Amino acid sequence: MAQEEVQNGEPEKVAEVSFTALKPQLMVEAPKAADAVQFYKTAFGAVEAGRTVYPKRKAEQEQPHVLSAELELAGSTILVSDIADNSTPVKTEGTGCVLCLETEDVEAAIAKAVSAGGVAEGEVTEGDGACCGGRVGKVKDPYGYVWLICSPAKKCGDAEA
Amino acid sequence: MAQEEVQNGEPEKVAEVSFTALKPQLMVEAPKAADAVQFYKTAFGAVEAGRTVYPKRKAEQEQPHVLSAELELAGSTILVSDIADNSTPVKTEGTGCVLCLETEDVEAAIAKAVSAGGVAEGEVTEGDGACCGGRVGKVKDPYGYVWLICSPAKKCGDAEA
């Protein structure tokens, strides 16, 4: 693999690059992005920082197509976007991205998300996996995304050491 | 939907919940998580903050199973985890989560990611969609995840206004 060739240093011909922000973008089947934004506000207390929509719809009664809604959540920013059936999907082929939310009160957070329309999956467990230790529960939101609700991460250590 | 019933206020019986961190967790087909971590370091300059692995492998020559590797990237934290074929997948059914990385130099960032083994998809475009304006390119990493490489977001506005 290419990265093997450069793992001991920067590739020589490639410029130094810095990144100013990382924002997970959740694609939602159109026109449900507006509903998803409302869910993330109610379930997790996300705060909407802005929204860009297509100005015109084919019919008056249609929901506007959300190009991107920006939500502040737990010190991070997430984007929520409608993706139309006929658009080229920006579809990941990865095994799956989940979103890990850390909180002091895992049970209360799950209860709140469930009361907003999420579905708790499995029991809250004590694990040392996903989030480097502590309590972990799982909620699937109405738009198909899985959220791990975790107690704050302990510093990851190498269990081999 | 349940959230309709509570959108004008907190549900009465549910505790106030606050979240301290949001960490996207990328599930990678085992045992490729270690390779993925190396790729994110080389391609994006991610810095590994810790790694938790299963202490024992079935065979000496096997790669350790990465429960969770924690990477600092663009002021955020991402987790990378091996997911075994026979485990219950924490699989999202969402239309797909992509990761939007903001940088001043979209072309250089894409070139660097490609030199590390990523695949550029399509051209860099000027859009007002995904990241609220500016230049956007797309790179698929060797583990199936799509990264949008975007110029820093302008403030999202409502295009209807």
TrEMBL record, chains A, B:
Domain of life: Eukaryota
PROSITE patterns in UniProt: VOC
InterPro entries: At5g48480-like_C, At5g48480-like_N, Glyas_Bleomycin-R_OHBP_Dase, VOC_core
Domain VOC: 21-152
Cited Pfam families: At5g48480-like_C (PF22650), At5g48480-like_N (PF22656)
Name the record gives this protein: VOC domain-containing protein
